[in-house]
Amino acid sequence: MLPPAVFAGAALLAGWWRRRGDDPHEGPLWLAPVVVLIAYVGVHAALLGGLVAPRVAADWMPAVALAAAGLGLVAWRWRGPRAVLWGLRALVVLGVGVACTSGKIRHGWAIDRAAPVLGAFTAHTLASWWAFERLAARARGAEAPGVLMLYALACGQVVALAYYSLKVAQMPTAVAACMGAAAVVGIIRPRLSLARGGVDAPVLVTQAALFQGFLYSSGEGGAWYAPLLLGAPLAALLAGRLPLRGPKGTAARVVAAAVVAGVAIGLAIALRPASDS
Amino acid sequence: MKTCPMCVGAVALGLMGGAAAVMPWGSPRAAVAAPAAEDAPFAVDRVHTSVVFRVQRTNGAPYYGRFNDVSGSFLLNHDDPGKSAIDISIDTGSVDTNSEGRNRHLRSADFFAAEEHPKATFKATGFTRVGEMEYDVAGDLTIRGTTRSITARVKQTGLGPARRGVMCGLDVSFTIKRGEFGVSYGPGALSDEVRIMAGIEGNRAQ
């Protein structure tokens, strides 16, 4: 995972090097979706020996990353009603859900079986998206990418331990590598921001991989990890409300966000579908 | 001793009929029925069928795994190979490597994606005789939703009466490149070439 991290770190550092000013909604905000897309597709092609016509749900992931990065760029330029933007996001999430579920639908899942699962996936993804977007809009620097990195790493762990597919598990790990690099850049250049579309690609790619792990896992166990994972960005958001001021206060808030998100993530990993081996 | 001419005639007719039934030329009725029975395919006996694969671990030993759930039918017609047929289906979720963790990894999208593609199939398309009871069988192999034409060496290893009908055995082997079927995980750790070996036994009613 070093190449995507180095690439993302170098690109984001170069893009944000000269950034001045305090507004988190200004700067080269278009860069994050593009960087995540390029890094992800590169990792995917290397892992799966190139881009192929979709035969399994995992083969759709480059298209998911492309759609997510496209949504990120749309969000960057969006000046219309937010409800329309969220409607567009909901449609794309639903499409991603259908693509991931196609293997189940092909082998007998009726609409009454697929609809609740797709509805839950869409709701979970949009809620995560909202939480991360709020976090990115409020906090510049390392906080949002740091929590996103933890989230993506946790999803990768859950997928690896529940689904046993190391390839699918490495997909959110590639996102985590990008976000880890972004967090480092956020420490060096505290003006870095993931507002206005910067979280779209990381969130959607991670959610799609997590959904595949949930769908095709052969292990027994509940889906407690899903709400707990959702709890991570929400807890980080709440930690951001702590009355801490000044440079030390900012650092303390970042640590608090990471700790509370980490607790939720740790519980999610502990409560993953049980392995029968 | 008096004999009944009618009884003698009946016994004689009965003996002639019985003899005709076991003689090579058979009776007219047997001549019609026999080809129909010979053309009937054998149903795969999953209990006595083994499908084994061998993959080479880099710097290690060949590793063997198997599939436990195999179904389908086959027929080898030595007089007219064009009437032969092999149609085999394997439940990819039944992969067994003596390690549940590895079985689950093999069922995942890294290998067979068993939830999305629960069956691997082979359907013969052509038979070329290469020896007595031995054929090169061309056919379509489908794994993970990808179909490729392959050639398998198939040898009939047995044919004869069974408890309920007739049984037949085949020894099948061929080599594939797993990457051609999208099973490309671990190129540095596992060989691309995978050898498939199968002992397929089938039964049919007499």
Could you please describe the fold and organization of this structure?
The complex is a heterodimer of chains A (277) and B (206). Chain A has one domain (2-141, 164-218). Chain A is 74% helix and 0% strand. Chain A has helices at 2-16, 31-48, 61-77, 82-106, 111-138, 143-163, 166-188, 200-216, 225-239, 246-270. Chain A is globular. Chain A starts with a helix and ends in a 7-residue tail after the last helix. With 206 residues, chain B is of the alpha+beta class. Chain B is built from three helices and eleven strands, in the order ααββββββαβββββ. Chain B has an eight-stranded antiparallel β-barrel with strand order 1-4-5-7-8-9-10-11.
Describe, in short, the structure shown.
Chain A is 74% helix and 0% strand.
| Largest sheet entry of chain A | none
| Annotated CATH architecture of the largest domain in chain B | Beta Barrel
* Most extensive protein-chain contact, per-chain counts: A-B, 26 and 22 residues
**Could you state the order of secondary-structure elements of chain B as H and E?**
HHEEEEEEHEEEEE
Tell the overall outline of chain B: globular
Could you give the count of β-strands of chain A? 0
Biggest sheet features of chain B: 8 strands, antiparallel, barrel
Query: CATH first level of the largest domain in chain B: which class?
Result: Mainly Beta
User: Helix and strand string of chain A, N-terminal first?
Assistant: HHHHHHHHHH
Q: Which strands sit side by side, in order, in the main sheet of chain B?
A: 1-4-5-7-8-9-10-11
**Percentage of residues in strands of chain A:** under 5%
Helix content of chain B: 10-25%
As for the CATH topology of the largest domain in chain B, it is Lipocalin
Quote the average pLDDT of chain A: 83
Q: Uncertain spans of chain A, ≥5 residues at pLDDT below 50?
A: none
Fraction of residues in helix of chain A: over 70%
